[in-house]
Amino acid sequence: MPGSRPWHSRITGRRPAAFGAEPTGERLARIERSPNFVDGSFRNPVPTRRLVEGSLAGGLRATFAKKGSKPVGSIPVHPLTAGELAVPPVDGLRLTWMGHATVLAEIAGRRVLFDPVWGERCSPFSGFGPRRLHPAPIALDDLGPIDVVVVSHDHYDHLDMRAIRALIRSGADFAVPLGVGAHLEHWGVPAERLIELDWNESARVAGLTVTATPARHYCARGLRTGTHQLWASWVVAGPEHRLFHSGDTGYFPGFAEIGAQHGPFDATMMQVGAYSEFWPEVHMTPEEGVRAHGDLGGGAVLLPIHWATFDLAPHRWEEPIERTLAAARAAGFTVAAPVPGAPFEPASVTDPHPWWRAIAAAPTTTALDTPPRPDPHPEQVRV
What we know:
By secondary structure, the protein is an alpha/beta fold. The protein has helices spanning about 5-10, 25-35, 55-65, 80-85, 160-165, 180-185, 255-260, 285-295, 320-330; strands spanning about 35-40, 40, 95-100, 100-105, 110-115, 150, 175, 195, 200-205, 210-215, 235, 240-245, 265-270, 300-305, 335. It has a single domain (about 25-370), classed as Ribonuclease Z/Hydroxyacylglutathione hydrolase-like (Metallo-beta-lactamase, Chain A), CATH 3.60.15.10.
């Protein structure tokens, strides 16, 4: 009947490749056996709403109407080279934040690439959607060999179809949450190079142990929320070092359990941006990100991620890092805040240089001299 097909199919005659694919066969059967799959969809570890009352329209209005949403000058980017990456880290562990949630981790002589996004826009369409505020620090083809690509979930600012297709040539294996493998296989990733894990499942790959751990979020690549794709945070462990990547998540009490089971960590990569009062349960505020870091053990270096690259929420673009540093200082935690593309070793992190202040739309020089915002203590979950 007219109008029964999705709008994109009526316009183009086919489903865009970037939308990915739905799980079938044994993949679907495995999903249906998961203890986290209930009544036809994956569930969060605690009751969670994607949006609050009037949030979609209100959030969009607030995002578009805000002041200072973009830097007044160019975001500085370190022009990373293959030569730099060819020199091994002194301590055996090095991180390079490429922007947003994309991090290259060099651990135990292996290279792990988290949430690789190199596209100009985080969108299924080349001319639509949030545009990057800074270029990628290095061309994807110049990264060289990658041992493991880790994907936290299937949102466009974390799962970039073109980047995945390019990374097939790197020889990497791909570790993804349960169900997300259908997208990657649809895009050409060989099934034998896919590692698809449920929460609290681990796999050995390239001499490392990768573990999918719980997160509080959701999946979607079309207009509707995905029901058969899981989201996850991740632990990557080598013989001497351990890392945690939060992916996207709201705060929940499970971080302490993750830390107890899989820590201590040398570094945590924590989502601190794209928060809003309109969706308070699926993205952490900076204070919640710092609190989660503490729950995980607190002794690690905290690398704030999910800020500065895409404008996705009503807050000012530099607000996440200022609030993160204030909360971390109050808690006595160590923070790394490099410009995108600048490699650093967690063992030798020094006080961050506030590079973002020179291009902020308004002065922020007193932000670190003010107390952090109160922790909302979200154990009392709203249903």
